[in-house]
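Deliverable D5.2: sample structural annotation.
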Amino acid sequence: MNQNLMRRVVALIIVVGALAFGYQYFIGDGQALSTTNSGKKSTKGGQAAPVRIAKVETRTVPVRLETIGAVQSRSTVQVRSRVDGQLIAAAFKEGQWVKKGDLLFRIDPRSFEAQLRQAQANLARDQAQLVKARSDLDRYSQLSQKGFSSQQKYEEAKANVATLQAIIRADQATVEIAKLQLEFTEIRAPIEGRTGNMLITPGNLVKANDTPALVVINETRPIHVAFSVPERNVADLKARIAQGPLSITVSLPEQPEKRQTGDVVFINNAVDTATGTIQLKAVFANDDELLTPGQFVRVAVTLDTLADALVVPSGAIQDGQKGSYVFVVHKDMTVEPRPVAIGPADEGATVVKSGLVAGETVVTDGQLRLFPGARVQPQKPGVAAAGSGTPETGKKKNGKGKEATNAGPGKDSGKPGASQ
C-alpha cells in the first residue's frame, strides 16, 4: 500500500510540474509576441525612420563614355649592332633617360680603323697612277698630232685615264664604307626615351642585326593610350571630332585622383567584328611620366555637356519592377515613391530627365524601411540611417560619461525583454 501511494504521489508531482512549465512557456511566448506586435504597431503607427536626404539641384553635367585603356609607347626601338665585333663599353645605366644621338655602346674599333687606312692607301695609290696616266695622255696627244706616235697609243692612254678615274671612284666609295663601319662601332640612341634592361653586357661578341637586342628604348614623353568603344558610339565620336579636338581623361585605378588629359589622334578604319568595338588612340604629354607602357587605365571620353540638368545623388535612385524611382520627402516629413527617368551619371550624381523638379527633397540613404506615407527623420552627417546598406558606427556618451559604441538598430542591447 505504501509503495502504491508513493508512486501516485510522484506521478501527481510530475503532472503538476509539467502543467506549470507549460503555463509559464505559453505566458512568456505571448508576452514576447505582444512585445513584437507592439513594436511593429508603433513603427507603422508614426515612429519616424531615420534617413538621409538631399535637394534636387541643377548643374552642368558632362556626358562621359567610360572604358578601360592600355598605355602604349609612341615609339619603341630595339637597339642592335650594325657591325660584327666585341662590346667593350656601355655608356648608360639601365632605366636612364637618353636623348637622340647619346652614346650607348662601344664596339672594339681597331679592325675597322685598319680597314679604313687600307682603303685610304688604295685611293692614294690610284690617284697617283691617274696623275701619270693624264701626263701620258697629254704627251701621246701631242705626238699623235705631229705624226710621231700612232693613234692607237693615244687611244690606249685615253682609256687608261678613264679606267683609273673609275677605280678612284670605287676607292672613294670603299673609304666611305670603311668610315661608316667605323662610325657604327659607336652605337647611339636613335630616339629620345627611357632605356630598359641591358640585354647584352660589355665583353660579349655581337653580330650585325643579331637577336636579342642590346637594349630597348621606349618613348614615353609623349605617350599613347589605346582604348576601344562600342560601335554604337562611333557616329557620336566622329560628329564630336568634326567640331574640334576631342579630349579624354585617364586615371590610374589605384590612384583615381591623379588624372591626365589628352587628345584623340586616331580612330581605326574598321570595327572589330569579334568584339563589336572600334579602337581609338589618344596622345598625352606625360611630363611627370605617370603613365608607363603596359599599364591599364580608366578612360573617360566627354561626348557632350548637359547644361542646367536636374541631378540627385546616385544613392537616391532605386530600381523596381517598373523601373527607377526615388522617395520624395514632403513638408510633413512623409515620403512618396515616384518613378523617374534617369540619364548619365557623373561623380556620384545622376541626371533625372523627368519625374522631379528642382528644389524637391529626396531620400539618399535608409530606403529599406520606407513605404508610401512613411514618416522620416533626417539624420545629420555621420549618423547611420535605418536600413542603410552600409550602416555607419558612431559613438555616444553613456550615463557614466564613458564612450559607448552605437552599432545601429537591430542589435541586442543585452537587457532582458529586448526584442530582435
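Annotation notes: The chain has four domains: 49-61+308-391, 66-73+217-305, 81-107+186-213, 109-184. The chain is about 30% helix and 35% strand.
The annotation will be released with the project's public dataset once the embargo ends.
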